[in-house]
Amino acid sequence: MTEPTSLSRRDFGAAAAAAAALAAAPVAAQPLRRAGPEWYRAIQEHHRQLFDLMGRAMDGAGGRPMTLVPLIRRINMVNAAHAIAEEVSIYPMIDILGMRGRSQSLYREQQMAKVMGTRMLVEAQQGDPGLRDTMRQLSDALRAHVREEEDQTYPDLIRRASPAQNRMISELYSETFRRASA
Ligand SMILES: [Fe+2]
To answer: What domains can you pick out in the chain, each with its CATH number?
Structure first.
């Protein structure tokens, strides 16, 4: 097993740019707005919550560090519960149903998002002026990641999974998210 390498700002910038390019590319599948199985609707709601919290944090990024710290901790907790639930219930099925390359890039993007989230917390605690840049990078990376999921990979997963498999994914996602949020 190889040692995980440290992820620098440049890694994040490159990953965000690559994800943004992918998100800007023409998409074969259209997002299933307010439709689809229970797991897909739950994930859309959790993505929306994350964007809402990130927007609030960015609005307050010029404010006092102490007011930002609890908000950033909340962002990281919601993001962790959501990411763990996807990594348990969704990404393995993407792999099993023949889309291994996509699951690998989604795992890697979430790994980077967790590092960026902790970097935000450290920078907020230290009053580091780099915080605003880190927030912008995480926000851009999240937006591209979510587009990749909601507009491309998840509609494909819904179609490839049988009704019973979609039900299993819904149960696994909601139980894992609930336990990880407790
Ligand atoms: Fe997600």
So the answer is: 37-181 (1.20.120.520)
Question: What is the residue-level pLDDT of the chain in tens, covering all 182 positions?
Answer: 343 445 555 555 554 554 444 444 443 444 555 678 999 999 999 999 999 999 999 988 666 666 899 999 999 999 999 999 999 999 999 999 999 999 999 999 999 999 999 999 999 999 999 999 999 999 999 999 999 999 999 999 999 999 999 999 999 999 999 999 98
CA count, 13 A, side-chain hemisphere, 32: 18
Residue 43 Cα to ligand 1 middle (Å):
6
Distance 13 CA to ligand 1 centre (A): 19
Dmax over CA atoms of the chain, in Å, equals: 50
Please give the torsion angle defined by the CA atoms of residues 60, 64, 70 and 76, in that order, rounded to the nearest 10 degrees: 60
CA of 103 to the centre of ligand 1 (A): 12
The pTM of the whole model exceeds 0.85: no
In single-letter form, the type of residue at position 41 comes to: R
Contacts of range 100-103, beta carbons closer than 8 Å, 24 or more positions apart: 102/152, 102/153
Ligand 1 centre to CA of 34 (Å) is 16
Per the CB < 8 A criterion, the answer to whether 57 and 71 are in contact is: yes
Q: How far, in Å, is the centroid of ligand 1 from the Cα of 149?
A: 7
